[in-house]
Design goal:
Two copies of one chain form a homodimer. By secondary structure, chain A is of the alpha/beta class. Helix content of chain A is 53%, strand content 11%. In chain A, helix 2 packs antiparallel against helix 7. Chains A and B meet through helix 3, helix 12, helix 13 and helix 14 of A and helix 3, helix 12, helix 13 and helix 14 of B. Chains A, B: Pfam families: MeaB (PF03308).
Chain lengths: 325, 325
């Protein structure tokens, strides 16, 4: 039995942290140990409320997480914060999950903050994040907040591994409404317009109205009760609206649990990630198995030098790869 | 021997048209016939100048193609126009390669226009377009113009199957420069600012200056001679600048041929598409082979119902799929 197993189940944050480092590693021996550990933890039955949180830089995501997370830990809940930062794949560094911007939460014994690892590709980020969520659930956290920035496909990836999706926006003029991609509107369960304080309070109110109107125009989704998705104002700096936002999240989660959507969504997500892993595993074979890699390189040279057409070479490779099926 | 083979090599447009219909088909017998035909045509040694052309709707792409294509056929060159329209995958219809907007070219015996097929996914569009290009080259066309609209990944796809990439833009204020995605700037060999006529002439001039400045700031690419990529004004309506644009394209193509970049690029592209076909073929197996499909569905249910973890089920599936390697 892995010596991290029991400490994780006991909620030991240092063991959790070491296990996440393990799932982030690409070393084969680390991967094998991580897989065995995850398998041993798989059927522990603990479920956190997994909340996806998206917002562009500058919208106040760290301040919101600090305020919202602290409110939850004050209620005795244990909160984990994970970050998915697709930009770190290119820049080699992450701006998300910055502990220095969440001072109180970072010191809170009921909170666990894990910044985004640097220099991994988005596919790897997805697997690492799913596995980190599973580890946090096994460690008994009540809420797992998965943060991402509003770029590329990362929202869709995060929405596919969380129970609720929250979009954090800044107050804006009505004409800027178009700036939010329609695809994100369609996955958002709750739109929070931050900075509803001081000079921006009126603008935030108008923005909430604009989004409420836009959401009403969208087709109701079967996994939503009346009135959802919903837009509302919050002020992360003043702490206003955070309790109401939490109430709405619980209302939605409870309704989905009662109506069977919670389990259905989790089942669908698990099946999706299984298929993704099969696809990724097949792709990995092309580069990981030495004989396959050599044959690919050889056929690639034949194609590049005009001795074979791409389609014919591909057929030859696929025939060589064909299994007992 | 396929009875389309000789007519295609003889440049028969009707045979070419029928062969493209064949490569667009998803019927297995059609696919097999298309593969055999392409293989038989593969080593004929004919090469066209493949030009990728991108521009958003409204920029005057059809008018440009009509004017530019007619200029080339007037010089005795044979010109084929193909369209890659990723939007047709969603809308089921295509706006590109519209023959009614290229009246002269559509009637020209030295031209061949093939609109985008409707309702195919982007992966299929890429394969179909590559195969259509190969057929046009075998049919002895001197220039193959591959049109696409400026959305999503289609430019990258087209740039990976062409020798030159031309970006057609409308005149705009300097602040709109940012609207062109950096990725497209990086693949463009020639930026043509259309509508350099009448009221917009001055604006077009300014836009050319803006882009020339932006291009100078970008790192020189090893496959470009001094001064490339380049921005210049054209008027598709008045026909001005088209001859100059063609001169620049030939200058660039000749330079790349002399310096070995032409062959190197084509080799790299062929190797890329070989790898793409292997990847696509592996993915197709998961859904096409009945036994594999059944096992995927069964394991998917196990995962969805919580009997197995996604990673463990994926490993089982991958083991079942493992070939002799």
């Amino acid at each position: 039995m892995d010596d991290l197993l029991q400490p994780i189940l006991d909620g030991d944050r240092r063991a959790l942290s070491r296990a996440i480092t393990l799932v982030e590693s690409t070393r084969p021996d680390h991967r094998a140990r991580a897989a065995a550990l995850l398998d041993a933890l798989a059927r522990n039955g603990r479920q956190a409320l997994r909340i996806g949180l998206s917002g562009t830089p500058g919208v106040g995501k760290s301040t919101f997480t600090e305020g919202f997370g602290t409110m939850l830990t004050d209620q005795g809940l244990r909160v984990a914060v994970l970050a998915v930062d697709p930009s770190s794949a290119r820049t080699g560094g992450s701006i998300l999950g910055d502990k220095t911007r969440m001072e109180r939460l970072a010191r809170d014994p009921n909170a666990f903050i894990r910044p985004s690892p640097s220099a991994t590709h988005l596919g790897g980020v997805a697997r690492r994040t799913r596995e980190a969520i599973a580890l946090c659930e096994a460690a008994g956290f009540d809420v797992v907040l998965v943060e991402t920035v509003g770029v590329g496909q990362s929202e869709t990836v995060v929405a596919r591994m969380t129970d609720l999706f929250v979009l954090l926006l800044a107050p804006a003029g009505g004409d800027e409404l178009q700036g939010v991609k329609r695809g994100i509107m369609e996955i958002a369960d709750l739109i929070l317009v931050n900075k509803a304080d001081g000079d921006l309070k009126a603008a935030a109110s108008r923005t909430v109205s604009d989004y409420s109107g836009a959401l009403r125009l969208m087709r109701q989704r079967p996994h939503d009760p009346e009135g959802f998705p919903k837009a509302m104002p919050v002020s992360a700096v003043e702490g206003t609206g955070l309790a109401q936002a939490w109430d709405e999240m619980r209302t939605l989660a409870d309704w989905r649990r009662e109506h069977g959507h919670w389990d259905a969504t989790r089942s669908r997500q698990a099946a999706y990630w299984f298929e993704e892993e099969v696809r990724a595993g097949l792709m990995a074979r092309l580069t990981e198995d030495p004989a396959t890699r050599d044959r690919m390189a050889e056929l690639g040279r034949d194609v590049a030098e005009g001795r074979t057409a791409p389609a014919a070479a591909a057929k030859e490779m696929l025939d060589a790869l064909s299994g007992p099926a």
